[in-house]
What we know:
The chain has 14 helices and ten strands. It has helices spanning 23-31, 44-48, 52-57, 76-88, 103-107, 118-131, 151-160, 184-190, 206-216, 232-241, 252-270, 272-287, 293-299, 306-316; strands at 2-3, 6-7, 12-14, 37-43, 67-72, 93-98, 136-141, 165-169, 196-200, 220-223. Helix 6 (118-131) packs parallel to helix 7 (151-160), helix 7 runs parallel beside helix 8 (184-190) and helix 11 (252-270) runs antiparallel to helix 14. Residues 15-18, 40-41, 70, 97, 99-100, 139, 169, 200-203, 222-226 line the site of flavin mononucleotide.
Amino acid sequence: MKIGRISIANPFLLAPMEEHTNYPFRLQMKRHGAALVCTERVDAIDVAARDRRAMRLLVTNPSEAPRVGQISGADPATMAAAARVVEEQGFDAVDLNFECPIRRLVDRGEGGALLADPPAVERIVAAVVKAVAVPVTLKIRSGPDSETETAPEVSARAEQAGAAAVEVHCRSVRQAYVGGPDWSVILRVRERVKFAVFGSGGVRSAADAVQYLRASGADGVGIGRGCLGNPWLFSECRARLHGGVARRSPTVGERARALLDLAEGEWQHYGATVALRRLPRVTCYYAKFLPNFAEFKSAIHQVRNLNDLRRLVREHFRA
Ligand SMILES: Cc1cc2nc3c(=O)[nH]c(=O)nc-3n(C[C@H](O)[C@H](O)[C@H](O)COP(=O)(O)O)c2cc1C
């Protein structure tokens, strides 16, 4: 499958998640078989101004290719300028966020707010497509609310303006993350466009992923919360799609190694101070299955360096 000139090796993609899908996380998901990885949303104004924090969110390396950098904003010229920076950083595609339901963003007329204004989306896409040579994609939801489904029109306009693919989070903006996704929106988007259509929402197991893929006719499935602490989900999805035998559950040792691998990556990426602050959030997803999880969760706050962490993991992750 192709997004513009990018080849996608399988239909299972990492969905962007703020505070999670940083460089070390993306690398781990990639190693476990995610076909395409994406940064979290970064404000176009900050990217265009090369703000330090924004640029750290856009750190990448060819080892995670193909990879996508995501920006949000409402002003076509600023989005175009930001897209150029994303391209310069080495990303293989630029993704435009018309998805985010966060009030702060919606009140500024950005993210999910733009789904109420399909012509505005078209203008932004056209400006960005003109500004960069890499493919431009967009991330949307079904529409502003359950009564107003604009995803098909927004996708059709975006394709006309030169976009190369769309990923639809199959919930409305008003729904945020509450309630089940409705994947039937993908069928209605499909009817309006020829480019690749991906869906996301509610994938927690390989069975979910394959079922949504087949029932909706999507070209691929974005996996969000389901892969937190569970990078094995990507290889399970691929095995299930090809009718293979379900992989055995990861061993305790494999879980310990995945946790440490991500933590070490965070240390390198952020430095010790920030990595330490993020540690409880990052590691607890990998430790949730432990019978003594409550103990691990309180002990993680006492960790001061990587050696402490390695010791804690040795003590708690025993087969
Ligand atoms: C914590 C969190 C942060 C998210 N951040 C982004 C983001 O920065 N950009 C984006 O397009 N979608 C974002 N999403 C939406 C996901 O990419 C995805 O569409 C959604 O989570 C799919 O649903 P699932 O988590 O039920 O699989 C975020 C979701 C979560 C849970």
